[in-house]
Structures are given as structure tokens and as C-alpha cells.
Specification:
alpha/beta; Peroxisomal Thiolase, Chain A, domain 1; globular; ten-stranded mixed β-sheet
């Protein structure tokens, strides 16, 4: 059978560097750091005292208070991002076939804040089991996709993917496949995360995975820099409206770009460490290119996973060099996590929006805080240090890799 074409017709974002798509792009293109001292709780006794928080977020501006109190913060982010994307798409919700409209979301953890609060409340009491009646529906990760589908009445596929930091790329790949197989015509896809909590910071500190650059948070996330010391945790979310091409054309939709490929693989190596030769990353990118029927030389820009960890950054570059060969030195590479921090399961959504905007604006967002490139990285590679760069961009590849060895890659193409 012939696959149907899949296009992006709407975007939404709530991020540490902007609470709308427009604000997000302004932050990206100007190299703004979203990192600062944590305000959500007193982090003074933690090894890491800073993060990339969403700022100036008042949920009641978007969701009635009585409804918001039934949602964890990660679901609130999902609802806000999805709302912006739906409005941006111009979808006529009275005209589309809602039986052919789905919601496929991603989150690595889900309602961590809700879980933490309920456990603390129970542990600090007299042992009598008193739990919020909304505890379970607020905590479970699929509440985000469920709430979105309820709001818009979308009765097609509705679920959430959980594959650590690859979650959202997996979600978008699933949505892409449902549409190109003709199973649905429209899908809201994306991801959200709200893990900046005592348990979230404490847990990643226990793994020694996060930067401890407390004296200068703004430069804490520094992918590919020789002095990087771990990732910076971020929160927020983003949404994309994916649509079957002919359906979008028939309604006169604005089309940002086309999704042409998705690749997935497993490191099958270690629960937290990447494969030392970047083999899983190589397979994921190779699979995406094969799916898109593209040659490596057609890629103009790679939005890397680039978390700012000592192990992860060079392994991804090694995989890129192995797959792209000499073309590695012709294309642009950057990590937008240098600005947003690492949004865990929502990273792929935010970075997909960044990829789409890079095509729209013909500009590569920078890798900020890149002061001294890791000596293991070939200096010929264009890591887009510190300043955004205008460039002809037809094809963007976006990587996400997660604990457990999960790898997922997306390819976006100018239309």
C-alpha cells in the first residue's frame, strides 16, 4: 500500500525560555538560558540547587481552578501546549471527523509532584490512610492524553508512550504511523514533564547525573564543552498537530513542514549509560533515514540529544560521524538543551518544535555555553557555538535517547 503523507499544521509550547511558541523561538534564536535557582521548593540542601523551570505560569489563565486542581502540573502543561497547537492549526472542531482524530502523548515520569505530595502527607500523619480522591488519576501518565481527548472530543487512538527521554519521539513516530497508514486523519502529539521536585532533583543527584554548577546556573548546561558536569533538569511541554496531507490541503491549512521518517532502536547495553560506541544512536538515525528513503547527505541540521553529560555527548557525535561520514562536516549540529535544560520525556516534543521552527525561519539555534570544545570532538564539526546561524534548511533530524537504552529519531522536511 502507498503511505499517506503527514504534515505539521499546528504548534504549541510552554518551556523554560518561553510560554508560547513565539516566545520559545525568541529564546532559542537569541541564545537565552532558562536555568536559575529553583523556586518550586527549598533546594538549599541539595547538591544541585538550580534547574530550568517554566516561569510566570498561572494555570488559571488557561484552565478553571476547579479543573486544574484535578490535574498534576505535567497534565496542566499538556493542556496548555495542546490548546495553543489546536488554535494555531485552525482546525474546525465542528467539521473534522473526531472518530479519525487521536491523541498520542509522551511523558517519562508523569505525575511525580502529585505522588511526592501524597506520600509526604501520609508519612507525616498518624498512619491513617487519607489520600486525595484525585491522587491516582492525577499521577498516572496517561491522564495527559486522556484529558486532551476529553477536551476536544477526539475518539481515535488515545494513549501515552513511556520510554524515558525518548518518550515523545516515540509518541510522534506512532502518530506519524497511524496517519500515514490511513488509520487517523489528525493527531495531537507531543509531551510534557514536571519533574522539578524534591524527589526528582534528589533522585538525579543520587545518580550523579546533573550539573552542580550552583555558582553560575545559566552556564550549567554546556553540551560538548570539555568542562560539562551533567545535565540541567527542565520542565514544560510542547504539542504538534500532525495531519494527513490531503486532509490539510482540503481545508486550506497552513503547513509548517512534513514528517518523512522515524527510526527506533535499543542500545541493549546498560540501564543508564549509553552504548560506548554510540551503536544504538547510529541504528536509530540509520533507521529514520531508511524510513524516509533519504541519503545522509540530504540532512542539513541535526538537533542532537546533547544533554551535557560526560558520557552521552561524545557517543552521539561518534554515531553521527559513523553514519554521515564526510557530510558530518558540512551540516550544522546543535543542542537546544543548552538553553531549555533537559525536559526528560518532554524533550522530544520541545525539540521537534525547535526543528520545525528552524525550517520555518531557516535558522539553526545555537549550542550556548560552548566555551572549550571537548578535545575528543573533531573541530571540523559545526556545533553552532553560542550564536544562532542563518542557513538553508530543508531537512532536520532530531534525536532523543533515554535511560534503558531507548533511542528514537525523527526527520522533518520542508514542503
Amino acid at each position: 500500500m502507498a503511505f499517506k503523507r503527514v504534515v505539521v499544521t499546528g504548534l504549541g509550547a510552554i518551556t523554560p525560555i518561553g510560554n508560547t511558541v513565539e516566545e520559545f523561538w525568541h529564546g532559542l534564536s537569541n541564545g537565552v538560558s532558562g536555568a536559575a535557582i529553583i523556586t518550586k521548593f527549598d533546594a538549599s540542601k541539595f547538591r544541585t540547587k538550580f534547574a530550568c523551570e517554566v516561569k510566570n505560569f498561572d494555570v488559571t489563565q488557561f484552565i478553571p481552578r476547579q479543573d486544574a486542581r484535578k490535574m498534576d502540573l505535567f497534565t496542566q502543561y499538556a493542556m496548555v501546549a495542546a490548546d495553543e497547537a489546536v488554535k494555531d492549526s485552525g482546525l474546525d472542531l465542528e467539521q473534522i471527523n473526531k472518530n479519525k482524530a487521536g491523541v498520542i502523548w509522551g511523558s517519562g515520569i508523569g505525575g511525580l509532584k502529585t505522588f511526592e505530595e501524597e506520600v509526604i502527607n501520609f508519612a507525616s500523619g498518624d498512619g491513617t490512610p487519607k489520600f486525595n480522591p484525585f491522587f491516582i488519576p492525577k499521577m498516572i501518565a496517561d491522564s495527559a492524553s486522556g484529558q486532551i481527548s476529553i477536551k476536544y472530543g477526539f475518539r481515535g487512538p488515545n494513549y501515552i508512550t513511556v520510554s524515558a527521554c525518548a518518550s515523545t519521539n516515540n509518541a510522534i513516530i506512532d502518530a506519524f504511523n497511524y496517519i500515514r497508514l490511513g488509520r487517523v486523519q489528525v493527531c495531537i502529539s507531543g509531551g510534557s514533564e514536571a519533574a522539578i521536585t524534591q524527589a526528582g532533583i534528589g533522585g538525579f543527584n543520587g545518580l550523579r547525573a546533573m550539573s552542580e554548577r550552583n555558582d553560575d546556573p545559566a552556564t550549567g548546561s554546556r553540551p560538548y564543552d570539555k568542562d560539562r558536569d551533567g545535565f540541567v533538569l527542565g520542565d514544560g511541554g510542547a504539542a504538534l498537530i500532525l495531519e494527513e496531507y490531503e486532509h490539510a490541503i482540503a481545508r486550506g491549512a497552513k503547513i509548517y513542514c512534513e514528517i518523512v521518517g522515524g527510526g527506533m532502536s535499543s542500545d541493549a547495553y546498560h540501564i543508564t549509560a549509553p552504548h560506548p560506541e554510540g551503536f544504538g544512536a547510529f541504528l536509530s538515525m540509520q533507521d529514520a533515514l531508511e524510513d524516509a528513503n533519504m541519503k545522509p547527505e540530504e540532512v542539513d541540521y541535526i538537533n542532537t540529544h546533547g544533554t551535557s553529560t560526560p558520557l552521552g555527548d561524545p557517543q552521539e557525535i561518534k554515531a553521527i560521524e559513523q553514519l554521515f561520514g564526510e557530510h558530518t562536516y558540512q551540516m550544522s549540529i546543535s543542542s537546544t538543551k543548552s538553553m531549555t535544560g533537559h525536559l526528560l520525556g518532554a524533550a522530544g516534543a520541545v525539540e521537534s518544535v525547535a526543528a520545525v521552527l528552524a525550517i520555518q525561519h531557516q535558522m539553526v539555534p545555537p549550542t550556548i555555553n560552548l566555551f572549550n570544545i571537548d578535545e575528543t570532538i573533531d573541530p571540523r564539526i559545526d556545533l553552532t557555538p553560542n550564536v544562532a546561524k542563518s542557513k538553508k534548511i530543508d531537512v532536520v533530524l532530531s534525536n532523543c535517547f533515554g535511560f534503558g537504552g531507548h533511542n528514537a529519531t525523527l526527520i522533518f522536511k520542508k514542503i
